[in-house]
Design brief:
The strands form two sheets. Strands 8-7-1-4-9 form a five-stranded mixed sheet, covered by helices on one side. A four-stranded antiparallel sheet has the order 3-2-5-6, with no helix packed on it. By secondary structure, the protein is of the alpha+beta class. The protein contains two helices and nine strands.
């Protein structure tokens, strides 16, 4: 009878150890999954295409595209640039001869966004305009107006 009690006690201890090991393994798996999800989110990208159609006024000047306060590209007359940016709420600024125009875009993974920049000057006033347009509108403008590709920029994730 004593041997049976010892076996039952040993079995109960082994079952507790197995349950604890399973719990530790599940916690480790959850932690690894969370770390992997964080890395995936950190590396997730969206594409933002800035374009500028042909205009005589201001045609000799470049517009500077800024991200996080730093110039990332020049947008010349009749051109476009492709920016690969982290997902989430991102703010870009276009600076044209000191006139700045910000735009905030909520970027989703693997999506493409088109941003149209224009400049106009009437009498003594001048104005810049930056606006998000539809994919159809942006891609059609780039194709139909034969805009020049000024390259691709990859914005790294900010710490």
């Amino acid at each position: 009878r004593l041997a049976a009690e010892e076996r039952a006690e040993r079995l109960a201890v082994e079952e507790r150890l197995v349950a604890e090991e399973r719990l530790v393994a599940e916690e480790r798996a959850e932690r690894l999954a969370a770390e992997e999800a964080a890395v995936t989110t950190k590396n997730a990208r969206a594409t933002v295409i800035f374009y500028r159609t042909s205009k005589l006024v201001g045609s000799g000047s470049s517009a500077h595209v800024l991200y996080d306060g730093k110039k990332i590209a020049d947008l010349t007359n009749k051109s476009y640039i492709t920016v690969h940016a982290p997902i989430g709420r991102q703010e870009f600024v276009v600076d044209f001869n000191g006139d700045t125009d910000p735009i905030t875009v909520n970027l989703e993974e693997d999506q493409i966004y088109y941003i149209h920049f224009t400049f106009s000057s009437l009498a003594r006033s001048r104005s810049t305009n930056i606006a998000q347009v539809t994919k159809t509108m942006g891609s059609t403008a780039i194709r139909s107006k034969n805009l020049r590709n000024k390259g691709d920029i990859d914005i790294q994730n900010q710490p």
